[in-house]
Structures are given as C-alpha cells and as structure tokens.
Amino acid sequence: MSLDQRAQILEAVASTTCGVRDLVQVLEWKTLKVISLLREMNKEPICEEAVKNLLSSATWAPSAHNAQPWRFVVMQDQDSRYELLTKMGERWKQDLKADGMQQELIDSLTNSSMSRFLGCPLIVVVAMTMEDMDKYPDNRRNSAERIMAIESVSAAIQNMLLMAHALGIGASWSCAPLFAPEAVKQVLRLRDNWQPIAMIALGFPRRTPDAPPRKAINEVAIWI
Ligand SMILES: Cc1cc2nc3c(=O)[nH]c(=O)nc-3n(C[C@H](O)[C@H](O)[C@H](O)COP(=O)(O)O)c2cc1C
Prior knowledge:
Elements: H1 3-14, H2 29-32, H3 48-59, E1 70-75, H4 78-98, H5 103-118, E2 122-128, H6 139-166, E3 170-174, H7 176-179, H8 181-188, E4 195-203, H9 217-220
Antiparallel strand pairs: 1-2, 2-4, 3-4
Helix pairs in contact: 3-6, 4-5, 4-8
The structure holds flavin mononucleotide.
C-alpha cells in the first residue's frame, strides 16, 4: 500500500465517529502478535463507516484468478441473529449428543457460544462461491480450485481482522457455519451457490487477552 493510500484510509476512518487506534501500525508485523481472539465485547455499536471499511479491506484481498469468491452477510439485527444461532445450536446439540456428550456439558457449551455471538454488536457471516472459479472435467483440478477459493476467502477474512484491529475493534473468528450449513442457508436465505464457511463476531473489546503461544519458527519452517 502506498503512503497516499494509507493517508486516504486514515482520513476516511478519522472522519467517522469510531475510536481509531493507530491504523498505520497494523502494517507492521509486530502488531500481528496482538491480534487476539476477543471473546468479551461490549455492545457499543460499530458505525456504518467502520463496517464499510471492514468489508472494503476484505475485498482488497488477493484471490485466485481475481475471482473474489467471498460473500458477506452483515448481521446487526438481534432477532435474526437469535434465530440463526438457535438453528445452528440445534444442529450442534444433535452432533454433540451423537458423540455421547453429557447434556449438561452440551447446554453449557452451546449457551456460552450463543452468548458470545449475541453479546457483540455485529456478526459477519462469510460465504464462498465457486461461480467465477475455473471448472475442470476431473476431480483433481476441481479440488485444487476449491482450495484456491478457500485460500482466497481466508485472505479476505484476515484482511478484515487486520482492519478491525486497526480500528480498535475486536474480532472472533468461528468456523461453526461449516458444521451447520443448512441452518445458515435457510435462515439467511442464501443462494444455493453461497457456501457459508465462517462467522466473525465483532465489537469493542472489554479486555485484551494474552495471545495463545505459537510454535517456534524452526518447528514450522524448513530452510533449504
Ligand atoms: C479457520 C479458523 C476457524 C476458527 N474457528 C474457531 C471457532 O470455531 N471457535 C473459536 O473459539 N475460535 C476459532 N478460531 C480462532 C482460533 O482458535 C484462534 O485464532 C487461535 O486459537 C489462536 O488464537 P489468537 O487468534 O487469539 O492468537 C478459528 C480460527 C480460524 C483461523
């Protein structure tokens, strides 16, 4: 990003009523260390300008063939969220019951997840579409295309998280929609070719938890 572009974003962000926390710093690697999973958020709303910034940063992610396979559903309305989480929770409860988990534990797990996603001012459900990805006559290449689309949408989500951090907004990434796709599609009336793959809870954090530890570089990288 050029200095000009940085200045433009800062200006756009500064003109909003949101709290702004050193946007430029986000471009420096050391800041990445403190982008932690924020489970405790207060209900202070996130203004529209900031939501647009979050979505815009997501859409500037790189994508395979520039197919931009990401799709978003912005959920502020509490009733719709309640409906979504209840339907997803039903599916989850069935799965946990089939796994043999005790009912008390099932209820505590599903209730705490539900309150996390109802206790924040905004959820963004992220879906993926294969509509502009290449199509092949064989599974090997179609499967590679699918992974390329997943990589692209993941890059968009990470961009959103970086922008959220720059704006002082906490974000919590969940893959729950992958396990209850029918419930998500039904409640959000998604098109058939939108596959829900993630759900991001966003809000101003009540506290910043310590980041969980990471494997050492020499455990995850080889040098040749
Ligand atoms: C693809 C993906 C799916 C995730 N799904 C969940 C989830 O369902 N529930 C959850 O609590 N955290 C989820 N997370 C967050 C991770 O648990 C978290 O990033 C990791 O523990 C490292 O913590 P940190 O991001 O706070 O450093 C997910 C993260 C990613 C990238």
